[in-house]
Design brief:
The protein has one helix spanning 7-17, and strands at 2-5, 23-29, 40-46, 54-56, 63-65, 76-82, 87-91, 96-105. It is mostly beta strands. The protein is globular. 17% of the residues are buried.
Amino acid sequence: MHITFTPSAQAALTPYLADGKRQLKLHYDTEGCGCVVSGVPQLQVVEHNLPDDALAQGDPFAFWYEPRFEVFFEPKMRIHYDENRHAYSLTSDSQIYTNHLSFVQI
């Protein structure tokens, strides 16, 4: 899995990662969804990865993800930040996963 972060996303995320102690995680949230297929992607800033997390190389940020949910994502995706809406989006060449990618600091 690979994510390219657009320049606007890079600018928005850099302050959260500048201290070098925190990293990004693409989380697939299934809490309260009733079915794993109904999960929602979420971008998290985490201090520690979980034991089952895998590290993927992104451009320019590496990020953690849970391999069991990799099936719900394409191999190459993009994260963009819309400054006017103060919202992240997750897209690929084939689809828009969400125009309101939840952003959470853990």
